[in-house]
Each structure stands twice: as C-alpha cells, then as structure tokens.
Amino acid sequence: MAGMELKCSEISSWKAALSSYKSSIESLNKPNLISLDNFYTNELPVLVKQRNPTPYITTDELSKLMQWKLSRGKWRPRLLDFVSSLNDDVVKSASRKAFESLPDVSKAVKELTVLKGVGPATASAILAAHAPHITPFMSDEAMEAAIGNTKDYTLKSYLVFVEKLQAKAMELSSEEDLFTPSDVERALWSSSVAAKSRALSSKPAEVDLDKNSKRKRKR
What we know:
Layout: H1 11-19, H2 21-27, H3 33-49, H4 59-72, H5 77-84, H6 88-101, H7 105-112, H8 120-130, H9 140-147, H10 155-172, H11 181-218
Helix pairs in contact: 1-11, 2-11, 3-4, 4-5, 6-7, 7-8, 9-11, 10-11
C-alpha cells in the first residue's frame, strides 16, 4: 500500500500527514528513535544555528545524526563505524564548507561526501539540519513518492529530488501556512509509514479468512 503521492494538491492531506509525523516515529517501536528524532529535528538545528556566522557540526553530532538516519530507515552499522571514527576537525571543516556553499546544493553535497561513510543521503540529512528550507533529507519513502526510485543514491538523483520538493513546498505554502522542502519530506515519509502499518495490520485478517475458506472447502 502506497502513501500519499507528491502530486496530491489537498493542503489538508499534507497538514494531516505532517502532523502525524511524531506518531509515525513512535509507531516504528525502534530503540532510541524517539530521542534521536528529537535530537535531529529540534536540538541539532539549534546547535548549528548557535555557531553562526560559520556553522558546522561535530563528529559526535554526525554520529548521532547517522544513528537517526539508520534507525528511521535501514540499519547499516558499518556506516556508523565510519563516521564515528572521523577526525573532529575534518568533520567541522567539511560541514562548514558545505553550509557556506548553499544554496548551491551540488557543491554542498560534494563538500560532505569527501567524508568516509557519508554519501549523498547522509549529506542531505546534514544539510537539512541547517537549511530545511533548501535541502530535504533523501529518505527512501520520499524518494519513491517524488521520483519513483529508492535505489539511486546519487547526487544527480538528489538534485532532481530537491527540485521537486522545493517546487511542492512553494505550491503548498501560503501566508497562513509555510511548508519547507523538509516538511514535504516528513509528510511523505509519515504517510508512507502509516500506509505500510495499515497494510500490515490488515494481513492477519486476510490470512484468517484464507484459513477459514480452506477449512470450508475441506469439509
């Protein structure tokens, strides 16, 4: 069962999906994800902003960001090992250069992917923490809704993804409601998670029906 499509133009549907983000996080029942999501969504952007005019992130923050990314998606422990072992000065320098590169998304991503374990998807998460109004996180669910592909984790795909979510954010925004590309990503992710949950919850009933029908046929 698919979640909401990017072409959906009903503002109420987008608001509902975005407002259910927290409950979607909770529904996954993953260890530490709630606290990690709070760190990524609320704490990290404040920490980065406090470092203006030359913001950056640290290795510890990147490690927690990676834990969040892997917990919200697919767990790949080697990536966490890679970023956790990065030199702090190197991470600070790369992230500082990346943030300074915006709004040139391509350049910003390239500044970050020099770090071992950091691909375009992780780079997008770093950039989204600093500039949610420009760079959304490259989640599987939002990628599938936006460009129909969750396997192509390339810079080229990310740039297409960014363009589509920026356009959608502009379309949904008004004087009363401001949507960022990151809001669009969270709404798409939340909608997809909710749809998968509904699909899973309906499966046992379907199985029982099959069993009952088989019993009847045997009789």
